[in-house]
Specification:
Distance between the termini: 102 Å
CATH class of the largest domain: Mainly Alpha
Subcellular location: Cytoplasm
Radius of gyration: 34 Å
Number of domains: 2
Strand content: under 5%
CATH superfamily of the largest domain: PSPTO4464-like domains
Order of helices and strands: HHHHHHHHHH
Number of strands: 0
InterPro entries: DarP, DarP_sf
Helix content: over 70%
Main location: cytoplasm
Number of helices: 10
Function: Member of a network of 50S ribosomal subunit biogenesis factors which assembles along the 30S-50S interface, preventing incorrect 23S rRNA structures from forming. Promotes peptidyl transferase center (PTC) maturation.
GO molecular function, one term: ribosome binding
Length: 212
Amino acid sequence: MAHNHRAAFYPRAADIAAKMPPLPQPTAQRKMSETDNEEWVSKTQMKKRMNDLQDLGMELTRLSDDTLKKIGLPEDLYQAVRDYKKITANGALKRQNQYIGRLMRETDPAPIRDFLARLKGENHAHNAFLQRVEHMRERLIGNDEAFTAFAADHPEADLSVLRTLIRNARKEKELGKPPKHFRALYQALKAAMEAQRPSENHISDGLQHPAE
């Protein structure tokens, strides 16, 4: 009984250790850990920035040469992008990609991002306009009343030419002939509708147009 009483009175060392708070980390070790973490974050951010610049450089390779000239790129970057578009071998493409990435890290990306943002906005607006032209063509071929409304909205258009093109496009469709007048109608409508679009200061050329 005395032995049991003594065991209950004196807790085991393991129980005491379990209840003790952890010892504070040595100052030098704590500082080293914080420094390592900051370096890891810094390296991660740097890698992300490098990848972003690499992707931005690849966006340039999808532009026409005339559009590239409008950005005002440094000469070595401009030439590197042009050279990339001429390369076909995978290994050479990868090396040129990396070279463009290095040049991008030496270039201010802000003007490039601003130009591409405006270019994408203009492309979107232009493609939306071309879709409206296509929809109008379908309406005019399918409904005579649509022509009356179009004539009222576009008094400057050559309505006699449009009537002929619409009539011939309908015949082509009925007879299954090549869509010669169907395409000509698209171009005529595009010219008439574009004449009434607000004037825009285009920054691009060679836009990707939907099929006529």
